[in-house]
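Below: protein 1.
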Amino acid sequence: MAADQRPKADTLALRQRLISSSCRLFFPEDPVKIVRAQGQYMYDEQGAEYIDCISNVAHVGHCHPLVVRAAHEQNQVLNTNSRYLHDNIVDYAQRLSETLPEQLCVFYFLNSGWGNSSSKKGT
């Protein structure tokens, strides 16, 4: 992680050069540069506070201590994707399946609830 924050304009210029245009920004005319988050709030480079209703954190918030601790503990053991065989993914799927109807017993784990930002409902 960068120790110092660069100016918003510099970050935007680097993003436009290095990040695919298919990864769209919210408010592209004047994007918000979020520099940190805690609980349900996010903060921009000027310190303005925003309630985060869309960043996949509605359940526990940003930086929840239990989630941070669990991620830290897991990262000390293994940090990889689901394409390798590992007990944790099937253990979790099994626990999850016990809470759902039998018709919902096959899982596909992703890192985000967001699909292609350009896709439309029903397509």
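Below: protein 2.
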Amino acid sequence: MLRYCLVALRAARSNLSLQTTLHLPPKCTLVGSQRFFNSSSVPTIGIVEYDVVKKLPREPQKLLIDVREPDELTKTGQIPSSINIPLGIVSQELSASNEVFKSKYGREKPQANTEIIFHCMIGKRSLKAAEAAAALGFKNLKNYEGSWTDWAKREGLPK
């Protein structure tokens, strides 16, 4: 695997296409521009729509994480039942002890199979957060692609 990383690094530095530079081994996938994952161990990140998110206050076993910055939330508001963990600290917070997580967020720390739905303003940062959670071993990950923009539109709130 190190050999493939070195080739990817050289290709990135020389602006060569990684697809033409690499011959990846079976079951390996190039994700993004320079990240490699064994596709047999990477969970698929699902997509959820407004209707699923709307029901979440009645489904406390699922966790909705808003990865926007706190100042964004003060301007727009928050989706009910979501907790705020900014993208920059998602990995750190999901790696925290059960006690620390519960004291900060008032909820049990998610387990590897807990359904976690991420959202942000338009769905891009939330996808990055889901990828970070996958790297930590979480398996039941979803992205609310429409995120706050879709929620606000459907709820009649300012964007």
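Residues 1-25, 27-39 have pLDDT under 50 and may be disordered.
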